[in-house]
Amino acid sequence: MTKIGIVLGSTRPGRIGDQVAQWVHERAARREDAEFTVIDLRDHPLPHLEDPPGFSGQYDDPRTRAFAAVVASCDGFVFVTPEYNHSLPGVLKNALDHVYVEWNTKAAGFVSYGGVGGARAVEQLRLVCGALQLADVTPQVTLPLATEFDLGTVFAPGEHQFAALDTLLGHVVAWSAALAPLRAGGAEAAVRGRLDAVVEALRAKDLEALRRIYAPDVVSFDVEPPLQHVGTDAKLKNWAKVFTIFEKVDYELRGLTITASGDLAVGHGFGRVSGTLKNGVVTDGMWVRATFVFRKTGDGWVIVHDQASVPFDVASGRGVADLEP
Known about the structure:
Distance between the termini: 37 Å
Order of helices and strands: EHEHEHEHEEHEEHHHEEHEEEEE
Largest sheet: 7 strands, mixed
CATH class of the largest domain: Alpha Beta
Mean pLDDT: 93
Strand content: 25-35%
CATH superfamily of the largest domain: Flavodoxin domain
CATH architecture of the largest domain: 3-Layer(aba) Sandwich
Structural class: alpha/beta
Radius of gyration: 25 Å
Low-confidence stretches: none
Number of strands: 15
Number of domains: 2
């Protein structure tokens, strides 16, 4: 189901934005075409751009990784924002700037509040969303302090605001669903890039580069016993063994097909390890059936499961290792 994040963009003490975000969430929860979750920036105390730009989807700071994972899990967003000095809050701009690919090809709508309803903050947010490849919808909810808040502090929206919010939510959900094919295409490209990184790391015999591509809890069904290898260290032991046997390693993938949905992706094809052994013998290796399962996290797409297998001859019970794709 489509998942929409309601981003509460103020962390100021005494804020009234939490009342607005709660109103949006309660109204949205009545819908059956999407699920909604509140993303309160107080729960994500991000540093001030200490990470490198997030174009790769990989982040050094654990706070950024945690925030990226939350953003990545959503298909669209409703930003609840005040207007500070004709603009959006700095904490919201900082959060928007901290990650990049996690925002891409998703929908965005705006619920704003302030002296003139927060309209000028939304004007600037629309420009930022364009740079982040967020598709901002036209309908918006504007909440002036003088008319929608008792004494400027207690939120009491007029009846017309409910219809405006319903319209906004409908557009965000519809656009989020419509953009799903683009997100899947972007995910496929990202996963292919990660598999390219696996090939490069194998050719370089770089175990630390491989470690960054596997999830800590990866479960691997490899061609070597035991039946499964659990955890990154167990998986890397297999590759370390390959590196001790080969002077020069090559790895090839053929017929790779990738299917992505949400934060999961599956790839399957044929893989082959080949190269020059320590004794100087050149070997073409054998082709195996290769399957990869990826999960999108704050560290980008990581392998949570892989499997390598060969067919076996039923009569003899032996594996068949001389087949080619």
